[in-house]
Amino acid sequence: MSVQEGRVEKGDELDQLEVRITRADLVRYAGASLDFNPIHHNERFAKSVGLPDVIAHGMLTMAIACRAVTAWGKGELLDYSARFTRPVVVPDDDEGALLTITGKVTAVDAEDGARVAKVLLSAQFDGKAVLGKPLARVRLID
Q1: Is the C-alpha dihedral spanning 131, 30, 15, 105 positive or negative?
Q2: What does pTM read for this prediction?
Q3: Is 94 helix (H, G, I), strand (E, B) or coil?
Q4: Which domains does the chain have, with CATH numbers?
Q5: One matching Pfam family, short form (predicted)?
C-alpha cells in the first residue's frame, strides 16, 4: 500500500526521491555551513588526500536523504540519525552526482499518546549506499 492512500502502517514505502548534487550546490552549502574544507571544492587537494575527486559534505548528503521523510508529509520529524559510509563524488559538470533515496516504515509504535513511525532510509550514489542505518522517527498526524 502506498503511504499516500491512508493511515501509515509498518511496511509502507515512501516515494523514491532523486536529487542531483552539483559543484554549485557544494559552494552554496559551504557558505551556509561555514565548512570550507578543500575536499569539497578543490580537486587537486581532494586527490592529494586519497579521494577520487571533490566530494559532497556528509551533512549535506544526510540532509538531502532526510528530505524524503519531510516531503512525505505524514508527521513531525522527531529525530534522525545516520553514519557516513561512502563519499558522494561530485563531478565537475552540469549534471552532478545523482543521489537516490528510498524509505520504508519499519515500525509504528505508541509513544506518549501518539503514533510514531520508524522510517529506515536508503541513500545510494552510483548503486552503493552512502549512509549507514539512516533512521528517522516521525510523530504521525494520521
Answers
A1: positive
A2: 0.89
A3: coil
A4: 3-19+57-140 (3.10.129.10)
A5: MaoC_dehydratas
